[in-house]
Design brief:
alpha/beta, 11 strands, about 30% helix, globular
Length: about 375
């Protein structure tokens, strides 16, 4: 095996990758597989680890990967601050521009989105004065649903193409040896997901911004408000306050969805309340009303801010008043009723957060094979 030559290195001789994601999209496993890829197939030294809190769908997850030449030991084991590649597993995470912290003129940014790269550059990169080399977009969620794979394998394919020193064959082999042994029945879909992720990326070069100006802007923003990634001696609040609260009341859980949502068909509803009983986040809004001449609590709709797309309500509804459908089909969601007791301005919400949707591994495996939506 010939040793791969890294085209980009930092002062320590490392090529560094940071993955920004939420629980449920497979970023932790993706980071592990990319780490193994460096050692087993590229002839490089590599190190990888992840950072996350509770292991729940929707909670923030970060993964870090470092590569170096065989003669260069990896002696740094802290999070990647200045990545050569930033991989964003969900478009909604970009609503907090701090996710781009540490990017430079050498950084390639890969985003799971259906938005064109030039629009990302215009609305995020240029507008926020972010420095980057390239923007690469791949609609990983759509590909994962079509191939019955998962977002992480599609993103692996895109990452391999963007790195320029990894081949499609290498990524397919690490997938076969890692996921193929545990989920042999899902291997075909995973390999197809990797191939399409490798082949269907859309890329654009970024205009170069003033890095010093961008750094000053980030610092100024940090001094004006407390932000999770930039707290230090001079700006940390007193008293050990937890600023990254995980209560679902204060979080927009929509980034947790995997492409499907429950659609409410009001004229089929018998107001039995089973949807409200099974929903882990109390998204259904019942108010006093009248049904068939009787006064009772009537279903007025659901709060999509807090719906994470688990579809338990669809499974339990006895009259098919709730049905599963693609979220992309509904730019304006029908019967969207924000919880009157939990309404906040959009700036109040954390963009991803904890939830209580925990199922068995066998259930998750079954759903992944069925349609890749979990």
């Amino acid at each position: 095996m010939e040793n791969t030559k890294l085209h980009l290195k930092n002062d320590y001789g490392y090529y560094e990758i940071r993955i920004e994601s939420i629980g449920g999209l497979g970023a932790n496993l993706c980071g592990k597989m990319m780490g193994e890829l460096g050692i087993k197939y590229l002839g490089l030294n590599s190190a990888s680890f992840s950072s996350y809190g509770s292991e729940k769908t929707g909670t923030p997850v970060k993964a870090y990967i470092r590569y170096s030449a065989p003669e260069t030991d990896i002696r740094v084991h802290s999070p990647v601050i200045h990545p050569h590649m930033l991989c964003i597993f969900h478009q909604a995470l970009m609503q907090n521009t701090e996710i781009f912290h540490g990017c430079s003129k050498d950084t390639t940014i890969i985003i799971n989105t259906d938005v064109a790269p030039k629009d990302i550059v215009e609305h995020y990169i240029v507008h926020n004065e972010i420095s980057a080399d390239r923007i690469i977009c791949i609609h990983a969620q759509k590909i994962a649903m079509e191939t019955k794979s998962r977002i992480n394998v599609v993103m692996m394919g895109a990452m391999a193409r963007a790195m320029r020193f990894v081949t499609l064959k290498d990524v397919c082999e690490i997938c076969t040896n890692t996921l193929g042994k545990k989920y042999p029945h899902a291997l075909k879909g995973n390999l197809e997901g990797i191939r399409r992720g490798y082949e269907e990326i859309k890329e654009v070069k970024c205009p170069q911004t003033d890095v010093c100006k961008h750094s000053k802007k980030m610092k100024d923003n940090c001094s004006q408000k407390y932000t999770q990634g930039n707290l230090g001696y001079s700006n940390a609040p007193l008293g050990g306050v937890n600023l990254n609260f995980g209560n679902s009341v204060a979080n927009d859980l929509s980034p947790s969805r995997q492409g499907y949502i429950p659609i409410f068909i009001q004229n089929r509803c018998i107001n039995c309340g089973l949807c409200d009983i099974t929903c882990p986040d109390m998204v259904f809004q019942f108010e006093p009303g009248e049904y068939k001449g009787k006064k009772m609590m009537v279903n007025k709709g659901l709060d999509y801010y807090h719906c994470k797309g688990c579809l338990r309500c669809v499974s339990i509804c006895p009259t098919h008043a709730l049905v599963k459908d693609l979220e992309d089909n509904y730019e304006r969601k029908p019967w969207f009723v924000p919880n009157k007791d939990l309404i906040r301005t959009p700036d109040y919400y954390e963009k991803s957060g904890a939830d209580g949707y925990i199922t068995s591994e066998s259930y998750l495996t079954e759903k992944r094979i069925e349609g890749g939506e979990v």
